[in-house]
């Protein structure tokens, strides 16, 4: 790390401001409520939209008014137009929606705290002013209390009462009452009920919660007995010969699921989503509604296909203190095929509710580019990074560092991370502007009853062989279809590999714009307005892209991206952002030899590894200069460049090192 540079983002500002590129989308809601046109998001007036977003978790959903203004402005500068409000019902966080401060005993979750609600209302209002839409979760980590009127509430205290909230009538009733309190109150800063505010784009009924999770066995009474009784009534209609014992030997754990259980759970899950959906519509909700945010097996997508949209979470390397340190570019089977593609239903928009490649993964700088490119290529509606912050107090962010001088005390916080957040300018523009073309063709994957209800296929893990068909998502658009759909007869089965079976070391999209070589561990994005190379390179390795753009890389890991900021194709662009990010870490951070376990968290400042590369590009604009940009947004020096015979050439990583350079007239 001796030659790494200090690139500590300011917690209250951004080095560049790309919000003017999207000025015609401000304020949020100007085009009416979010709707869907088959698998695309559109507003009421027909204006199409894509969402590049982040999450605010727990206490970060309740900033002071001053901090809310700052956060909203900073997000807009980075190109963000969606914020998912997440975990704000979690009692382990203070504030939460039920309790603003510690020190008093709250025995109910049936009342909203007025101070918490005021802060959230103000946050929503200033996000709206900046053109940032809101995705709101309803049931995440709510811990039911003694005075909520439930039997054995303490037995439901772990993990947000999952999956009891799905099947139990009393818990459904409490969820409805809570949704009505939250969504029908008038926001004093907008003068609108949340249900009447078009800045509210999406509502999630329940987070990571369904009937198909083997890690949430149903053992708590009297709820287990209620589920058994539900099963018996269901069987009387659907499987009258089924014998269901009266004792407690019956296994609801799903560790050995039967076809009967999967059919029953499918119907319970479907009934829950549709009942909550109808209730939300009845209280006036006008935005798009999703059932849950999983993509688990092949029973789940069938149970949520009546919702407006589908959602999925994508984690490339989940845990921060210890993980696999996986290099995503070098993986044969991409997580996009194993996770979101498994719930991408024909004619339904898909939104990635969470994604992350968690620090301290060394290669996480590739993740922003991969997510943005795959969302664009597949025609998905957008993605939100987990997470921006867990709290927003300025006391945690003094002197340019955060949390008492430690930038990454929480593994998932990303707002100060050059490796992921540093790519947000390039990723947001590439995705929101539509630089990456959608796939030319669609591979349909048929889900018949054989796959929906069989234990082998219906209850599948993300990486099971029976989801091979989804690995085509880097070649073509992939969509699920069901019996009755016109495309079902010619669809491939989930356990068929399809066109991807012929790929032994590399894959190219059917548009020719996306390429990945998992053996050599590098990839590129080749469009008219965005060109990017990322991965692990050999010394002097050349990547030649279309329209006369060439990258000559130094040895090691790097991402280098050219983005037209002035709107023209790169050859005619008068303002180009060069983003160059490699590894990034805290000063003094220590790991084991494999970089899979963190030994010491280190301290500020945040360091970024300089990226060395030579770039040559065709240009019709002769008079341009290349400037290095520091975290203050100031020019730190002119990087030498040459222009001859219509070719511009420059080298980065030798003088005035940065992660951002502006090539401008």
Mind explaining what this structure looks like?
The protein has twelve helices and 33 strands. The longest helix has 24 residues, at 259-282. The model is unreliable at 397-409 (pLDDT under 50). The chain has a nine-stranded antiparallel sheet with strand order 16-17-18-19-22-23-33-29-30, with helices on one face. The chain has an eight-stranded parallel sheet with strand order 10-9-6-5-4-13-12-11. A five-stranded antiparallel sheet has the order 20-21-28-32-31, with no helix packed on it. It folds into four domains: 5-217 and 267-433, Glycosidases (TIM Barrel, Alpha-Beta Barrel), CATH 3.20.20; 218-252, no CATH class; 442-504, no CATH class; 508-664. It has 665 residues and is α+β, with helices and mostly antiparallel strands.
Concise synopsis of the structure shown:
19% of the residues lie in helices and 26% in strands. It is built from twelve helices and 33 strands.
Count of all domains: 4
User: What gap, in angstroms, lies between the N and C termini?
Assistant: 34 Å
- Order of strands across the widest beta sheet? 16-17-18-19-22-23-33-29-30
Mean pLDDT: 91
CATH topology of the largest domain: TIM Barrel
| CATH homology superfamily of the largest domain | Glycosidases
| Structure classification | alpha+beta
Task: State which percent range the strand residues make up.
Answer: 25-35%
Number of helices: 12
E-strand count: 33
Uncertain residue segments: 397-409
Biggest sheet details: 9 strands, antiparallel
Instruction: Examine the secondary-structure arrangement and name the CATH architecture of the largest domain.
Output: Alpha-Beta Barrel
Rg on CA atoms, Å: 25 Å
- Helical percent range? 10-25%
The 3D shape can be described as globular
Under the CATH scheme, which class of the largest domain? Alpha Beta
